[in-house]
Amino acid sequence: MPTTPPHWISSENPPAAAIDLSMVRRQLEAGFLSGKYGYHFPAGAAQSCRPDILDYDTSEAAAIRALIARRCSYSGVVELGPGDGRRAARLIATARRWLPSSYLGLDCSATLLDDARRRLEDIGVSARTGLWDFEQRPTALIRDTRQRDRIVCLFLGNTLGNVESTSDVLSNIRSSLDPGDHLVISVARWKPEMPAEQHVDCYLVDGFRTAALAPLLAIGLVAEMDLSMSVEGRIIIGHATIVSIDHVPPSLADVLVPGRRLRCFISRRFDVTALDSALKEAGFDVDSTFAASESISAIATVR
Ligand SMILES: C[S@@+](CC[C@H](N)C(=O)[O-])C[C@H]1O[C@@H](n2cnc3c(N)ncnc32)[C@H](O)[C@@H]1O
């Protein structure tokens, strides 16, 4: 019998099966590959460049502390997509008065969950983790581990901006929580005054190329690729064009060929109205929203 490390509450998809190759194939045939695959391997590649690109930590943390401070007490913190746990550790360390020290992190990357757990344990938080792909379906892991009182669910760092369908993800989250629970979400703010080229410019930094191509690297493609960035509406998009191939997984050799152009990165921007209506449509009551220079944060209650 395989054994489960004690901090894992359960895993709805065992780590070894985390990359579903039939889904990968369907996406590649349709001309894209979801950003979520980039977090599997190389571990944290997509993570490492973020502070250079969207440095909204300071305004976001202040906004979130203010949102949480106005609320009642919670029996637990659940975080969706904690990455390496840096943001949550900073937030919890400075908001201990309002947040309990019981933490459950849910992510599709086992490697990042392990990093997050260690970071939180370093600041004295009792952390458990579980695998969940929130783009696929709701999870029972939150209900299975919750105590009686309401929980606060953190969904930070514009993770909503990187998914394929914001409505599917918010609806999966809504179905996994109970009425009265709170969702604290932060997304990147759309700046209408900024010319389109400048939205792209902030991605032209060292390290971003590997992060944007990470989904293709994660599925085992070793190739020379060109990366081009563009803005469509309020979405910054990265396309990879395969120039030449050194190695391709045999089962994907017919869809990954030189000349193929694939979308491998998206980052949406939001304004207050767009975030508000997305939350309401998914079944949340929006209690309060806060727009800072780079981010928009909101606290919402599950109806
Ligand atoms: C942009 S990072 C944000 C990390 C962290 N919240 C922060 O603010 O620094 C996105 C995180 O969400 C996770 N993630 C992305 N897509 C996911 C999915 N479909 N299901 C579960 N986790 C996902 C990634 O593995 C990563 O940990």
Task: Note down, in words, how this protein is organized.
The protein is of the alpha/beta class. It has two domains: 20-50 and 193-268, no CATH class; 54-190 and 270-302, Rossmann fold, CATH 3.40.50. The chain is built from eleven helices and eleven strands. The protein has helices at 21-29, 45-48, 50-53, 57-69, 86-93, 110-122, 141-145, 166-176, 196-201, 208-218, 272-282, and strands at residues 8-11, 76-80, 102-107, 126-131, 151-155, 182-188, 222-232, 235-247, 261-268, 284-291, 295-302. Strand 3 (102-107), helix 6 (110-122) and strand 4 form a beta-alpha-beta unit. Helix 8 packs across helix 11. The termini are far apart. The model is unreliable at 13-17 and 48-56 (pLDDT under 50).
Please summarize what this structure is.
With 303 residues, this protein is α/β, with parallel strands linked by helices. The chain contains eleven helices and eleven strands. Mean pLDDT is 86; it is low at 13-17 and 48-56.
